[in-house]
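Readers outside the structure-tokenisation community will struggle with the description of the input data as it stands. Showing the layout once, in full, would remove most of the difficulty. For illustration, here is how one protein appears when written out as sequence plus structure tokens:
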Amino acid sequence: MNTPILDISLRPYLGSFLVAMLALGSQLKAQTQSPEQTLAAMDQCREQVISQLSFGDKMKMKEAMGVIQSNPQFIAANAAVTNAPTQEDKIAARKTLAKVKLDLIAQQDPSLKPVVDKIRTAQAAVLK
């Protein structure tokens, strides 16, 4: 006796079910990212926003980054990453460094605040 594997009356719902499962899978994958993957995604978000800037704004970002390199807050946050005793501490320090860097860039050149806000919005989406 040939019994169908899938009842023919359920076939129209199969596509919707598969789409829903794929969406759920991507949500679970995002929730189960390792901290290192999350940091890499944050870096990628920043680079994505910067890549879409005009040449002039890219040069402003580069100049602001050069200036903040000597800022004591930046130096301390960078040292915290370097001297973190555990991987968890290093990840927390990198998140802090990213925040400090964006804060200092916005302070250094207020015209870059919209860019900094775009970077923060993109990174916040990764952290959800």
Summary: The chain has one domain: 34-127. DSSP finds six helices and no strands in the chain.
